[in-house]
Amino acid sequence: MTTTATSAPTVTVGTGPVSFDDVVAVARHDARVEISPESLEEVRRSRAVIEALAEDADTAHYGVSTGFGALATRHIPVELRAQLQRSLVRSHAAGSGAEVEREVVRALMLLRISTLATGRTGIREETLQTYVAMLNAGITPVVHEYGSLGCSGDLAPLSHCALALMGEGVVRDVAGEKMATADAFAAAGITPVELREKEGLALINGTDGMLGMLILAITDLRMLLRTADITAAMSVEGQLGTDDVFAADLHALRPQPGQALAAANLRKIMQDSGIRDSHRDPEACTRVQDAYSLRCSPQVAGAVRDTVEYAATVAGFELASAVDNPVVTPDGRVESNGNFHGAPVAYVLDFLAIVAADLASISERRTDRFLDVSRSHGLNAFLADDPGVDSGHMIAQYTQAAIVSEMKRLAVPASVDSIPSSAMQEDHVSMGWSAARKLRRSVDGLTRVLAVELLTAARAIDLRAPLTPAPATGAVVAALRGAGAPAPGTDRFLAPEIEVAFQLVASGAAVVAAESVTGPLN
């Protein structure tokens, strides 16, 4: 899988597993997709196998000449098999609730295309190419929040996409306008597909939705982990803490890989801090140890890193998978299997919600220390200009606390739940889609919590003047001020400043500012 480095990159599917970068490029940056000639040849080869089975009038073949799920015992005559596929998609497009984000639907579509292009599903070439055309035209089927149990894949979400492929249902065009699929297809010059044997099943029987959300979350968390090291360094600096505890030899005593990476970041970010240098004299500084939220930040952020990378390993295995049931094996057999079960993905989605909540929790604790005169080492109460008249960042911390509390609830695993379905044929399900949906909310919450810490720590650093911050943290403070969050002063409307900080974190601009001094962070 490759992405060309142009203003309009093209992702070629079929030269190997799609990559994280490919998924992000298509989902968020509208990269175009094409199928490799080798993949199309394999698609044609496996389709011939399915068509041979379709001509078998005597033996039932699941998904070709039978019903689905608990209805698989019904043999479907030849004249009803096209209706069988249409009925499958129409009935399974049963989602409800709010619309799923465009980037999630585009990721889901790319990942289904990737599986179809393996030649293991028996799809026709023209059906696959029409799916690619829909994605490249920027047509996004309307997919709803509820409907997937994460077993037999993300059936309802994928069915809404398959319904659009048939020219039915509702989509949003490239400009975001909601319209009938038939109108969007006509405007884009796309001819709807008439599904043939097994194609409906091939289009909907995958874990693509939960996997797409996992990849997007991992991408975001990798950036947020570098941001968390930046905000931790700013808090240590602003609270007159020590960077001695981040020394490499100390972390070598506990060789957790993520911990060492986080500690290295903290050393780089705090290098040459005038604030830190002001209290190096042991006779002038009576504190023996900093609080856990300062001193243990590499241990916590490092453990989060290691969990994220484990999740990335699982996602990598999934990207190399062809999830469908039944599948056409390389030697031409058509075999039923259980690879559509979302357990591997569901578990790591839940793991990530847990660690995101804890990373937010330690960030909130660092923020709170700035606001308490008994712990802030000489700063005004709540960092207020005139405490009592002004409230400073008192309620910004409330906002953080509310988000962290919500994230703790979101950390309750979805994957431990299972509700039997399809008349007990599908009697154990993963709930991976639900795990993915709550993780997206958790990642958003973490971004906002880190933004409040950044805003608060920047205010404290400014209040330490004439002491000067490290060049890296100073660059982050300058970026914040340049983005529209003013220097300390009397109370003002605080929500817009929190939004400025949020955008600085969410866009990665905070990391860019720090790395302009430190070079690439881990």
Describe the structure.
The chain is mainly alpha-helical and 522 residues long. The chain folds into 2 domains: 2-206, Fumarase/aspartase (N-terminal domain) (Fumarase C, Chain B, domain 1), CATH 1.10.275.10; 220-243 and 270-418 and 430-518, Fumarase/aspartase (Central domain) (Fumarase C, Chain A, domain 2, Up-down Bundle). Helix content is 55%, strand content 6%. The chain has helices at 20-29, 37-54, 81-92, 102-116, 125-136, 155-165, 181-188, 199-204, 208-238, 248-252, 257-270, 274-277, 292-295, 297-319, 343-371, 394-410, 432-463, 471-483, 495-506, 509-518, and strands at residues 2-3, 10-13, 32-35, 96-99, 140-141, 144-146, 170-172, 178-180, 327-328, 334-335. The strands form 4 sheets. Strands 1-2-3 form a 3-stranded mixed β-sheet. Strands 5-7-8 form a 3-stranded antiparallel β-sheet. Helix 15 (343-371) packs antiparallel against helix 16 (394-410). The radius of gyration is 27 Å and the shape is elongated. The model is unreliable at 1-6 (pLDDT under 50). InterPro entries: Aromatic_Lyase, Fumarase/histidase_N, HutH, L-Aspartase-like, Phe/His_NH3-lyase_AS.
- By secondary-structure content and strand pairing, the structural class works out as mainly alpha
What would CATH call the homologous superfamily of the largest domain?
Fumarase/aspartase (Central domain)
Indicate the CATH topology of the largest domain: Fumarase C, Chain A, domain 2
How many DSSP H or I helices? 20
Into how many domains do the coordinates divide?
2
What does the radius of gyration come to? 27 Å
Q: Fraction of residues in helices?
A: 40-55%
Would you state the CATH class of the largest domain? Mainly Alpha
Largest sheet composition: 3 strands, mixed
> Mean of the pLDDT scores?
93
- The CATH architecture designation of the largest domain is Up-down Bundle
Would you identify the regions where 5 or more consecutive residues have pLDDT less than 50?
Answer: 1-6
The side-by-side strand order for the widest beta sheet comes to: 1-2-3
Q: In angstroms, what separates the terminal alpha carbons?
A: 25 Å
Series of secondary-structure elements, N-terminal to C-terminal = EEHEHHEHHEEHEEHHHHHHHHEEHHHHHH
Shape: elongated
Subcellular location: Cytoplasm
Main location: cytoplasm
Pathway: Amino-acid degradation; L-histidine degradation into L-glutamate; N-formimidoyl-L-glutamate from L-histidine: step 1/3
EC number: 4.3.1.3
